[in-house]
Design goal:
Blueprint lengths: L8 H21 L70 E2 L5 E2 L3 E2 L11 E4 L7 H6 L3 E9 L5 E10 L5 H8 L3 E3 L1 E3 L2 E3 L1 E9 L3
Antiparallel strand pairs: 1-10, 2-3, 4-7, 5-6, 5-10, 8-9
Length: 209
C-alpha cells in the first residue's frame, strides 16, 4: 500500500482564491431583486412652458377726411365801369358827369375792388364840389387843357387819394386839379347794403370859353 503525498498549501490557496473570484463574478451578474426603494437614483425632468398667444393689435382708426372750408362769397367782378355816372349833372360848367369814369378794373390799395355799375347797388354821386381857380399865367397866355385824375372815394364819401394819370399840357393844371378834387364830397357807392371803396377816373377840363 502506497502513501499519497499531500498537495502543496500554495496550490490549495490558489484554487480557493479562484473559486472565490468566480463566485463573486456570478453573484454580481445576477439581476437585483426590486426592493421598492429608489435610494440615490437621479431623475431628470423637462419643464414644458406654455407660451401665451400674442394679443391682436388694436385696429388703427381710419383718418377722418379733411373738413372742407366754407367757401366765401365771390367778390365783385373786376369789370370796368365805363358808363360810370353818365347822365348826372355836377352843376359846374367845367365838370361834366360823363367825364367821371370808374376805371378799367383798377384795384385800390389793400386789395379794394372796383365794382361795375351793374354790380354796385348805388353808384357814387358828387354832393359837394368846390370851384377851381384858373391859373393866372395860363389865363393870361390863353392856355387851355385838361387833367385826367384817378380818385379814390372811400366808404364815407371822402376823397382819400388823388393821382394824376395824364395832363395836357403837362405841369400847368396838375396842382390846381389835384387840390380841387381832394375837397370834393361824394355820396359813397354801396353794394349789398354796405358802403364800398372805389377808384374813379375824373377828367377836369380847363377852358376859357
Amino acid at each position: 500500500m502506497r502513501w499519497r503525498q499531500p498537495l502543496p498549501i500554495g496550490l490549495i490557496s490558489a484554487a480557493l482564491g479562484t473559486a472565490a473570484v468566480l463566485g463573486l463574478v456570478i453573484l454580481m451578474n445576477r439581476p437585483l431583486a426590486w426592493t421598492g426603494r429608489c435610494e440615490g437614483q437621479a431623475f431628470s425632468s423637462i419643464d414644458v412652458v406654455k407660451k401665451d398667444k400674442p394679443k391682436p393689435e388694436p385696429a388703427k382708426p381710419k383718418p377722418e377726411p379733411p373738413k372742407r372750408k366754407p367757401q366765401r362769397s365771390a367778390p365783385a367782378p373786376l369789370v370796368g365801369l365805363d358808363s360810370g355816372l353818365a347822365g348826372l349833372n355836377f352843376g359846374l360848367p367845367q365838370f361834366d358827369a360823363s367825364e367821371l369814369d370808374l376805371g378799367q378794373g383798377l384795384l385800390g390799395e389793400g386789395g379794394d375792388v372796383v365794382m361795375t355799375d351793374d354790380s354796385v347797388d348805388v353808384p357814387p354821386r358828387p354832393i359837394m364840389q368846390t370851384p377851381m381857380a384858373y391859373p393866372p399865367r395860363a389865363r393870361a397866355q390863353g392856355v387851355t387843357g385838361y387833367v385826367l385824375l384817378s380818385v379814390l372815394i372811400g366808404p364815407t364819401g371822402n376823397v382819400e387819394k388823388v393821382k394824376v394819370i395824364e395832363a395836357q399840357p403837362a405841369g400847368v393844371f396838375d396842382d390846381v386839379a389835384t387840390a380841387g378834387v381832394q375837397t370834393w364830397k361824394f355820396e359813397p357807392a354801396s353794394y349789398r347794403g354796405e358802403n364800398v371803396r372805389v377808384w374813379a377816373t375824373q377828367r377836369v377840363r380847363f377852358d376859357l370859353s
